[in-house]
Amino acid sequence: MSYRNKTYICFDGHEDMHYYRLMTAWKAHDGNTFNFHDAHDLNSARDTSTEESIKRQLRVRFANSKLLIVLIGEKTKNLYRFVRWEMEVALNLGLPIIGINLNGSRKRDGLCPPIIRDELVIYTTFNPKIIEHAMANWPDQHDDLKRKGIVDFYHYTDETYKGFGL
């Protein structure tokens, strides 16, 4: 079994790429505080010859991932070919999932993809402080809740956000 230390980031590559790029910029700018091992660094997954070929490359990323981040934009819930498949794989692997709302919402809202709507997921807004907090804390909380058989959605309180100056 491989060592899982990567973060797999799932997003609408056509509409929300700039949010993904911003996250990698946060990491490059201040890797001491906002840091993650991006599963996208493992392979390029640019082979467009077949859907199965791309999914095979994505499975390599999942094999090294400990966490899934879903960037939830306006169209994310309607994407099935890869984005929904990525969330399905993460659920099947039991990976903790952080849903990051790109619209500023701090909770699960109407843009949430149906596949994760009733799953054990924590939702945040798009901000490096709260995302880093979720990345550091949610995996352990997720595992504890899962062991207890709890399946529900979560979000951080306004007090948690205030503690980060948000």
Kindly summarize this structure in a few lines.
The chain is an alpha/beta fold and 166 residues long.
Tell me what you see in this structure:
This is TIR-like protein DUF1863. It comes from Enterovirga rhinocerotis. InterPro entries: ThsB__TIR-like_domain (IPR015032), ThsB_TIR-like_sf (IPR036490). The chain has a single domain, classed as Rossmann fold (3-Layer(aba) Sandwich), CATH 3.40.50.11200. Helix content is about 40%, strand content about 15%. The protein contains 6 helices and 6 strands; from the N terminus they run βαβαβαβαβαβα. α2 runs parallel beside α3 (about 80-95). The model has no long low-confidence stretch (mean pLDDT about 85).
CATH architecture: 3-Layer(aba) Sandwich
| Mean pLDDT over the residues | 86
Number-wise, the strands total: 6
Instruction: Please tell me the total number of domains.
Output: 1
Beta-strand content bin? 15-25%
Strand order of the largest sheet: 2-1-3-4-5-6
Q: What shape does the CA trace take?
A: globular
Indicate the CATH class: Alpha Beta
Low-confidence stretches: none
Tell me the span between the first and last alpha carbons.
39 Å
N-to-C SSE string, H for helix and E for strand? EHEHEHEHEHEH
